[in-house]
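Regression test case RT-17, inverse folding.

Input:
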């Protein structure tokens, strides 16, 4: 299973980005999906997760009210809408489901 992230980039503080994660050829109807991130010199940390049916979402405290995780109409796609970005959000963002990980997409926020 190959997870593919996209949507990363460079943005000024206060800006927005939307990350996407898809798994071409696969569906994950029975699995929760999540986003993690890893900043330079730090451990990978949980950011947000969404239940298999999209009815429940979970966020790390530092992004609550700013980030929104959602499932696309295509069952094997999730999104992470990131608003009011801060320099501390700078990291490589990874998509995860079950034991599978994407390659990551870089998000850089300049102050």
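Golden output:
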């Amino acid at each position: 299973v190959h997870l593919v992230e996209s949507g990363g980039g460079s943005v000024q503080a206060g800006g927005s980005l939307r990350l996407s994660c898809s798994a071409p050829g696969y569906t994950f109807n029975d699995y929760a999906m999540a986003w993690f991130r890893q900043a330079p010199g730090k451990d990978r940390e949980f950011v947000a997760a969404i239940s298999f049916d999209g009815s429940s979402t979970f966020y790390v405290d530092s992004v609550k009210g700013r980030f929104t995780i959602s499932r696309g109409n295509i069952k094997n796609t999730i999104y992470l809408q990131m608003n009011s970005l801060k320099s501390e959000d700078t990291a490589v963002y990874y998509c995860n489901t079950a034991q599978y990980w994407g390659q990551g997409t870089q998000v850089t926020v300049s102050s």
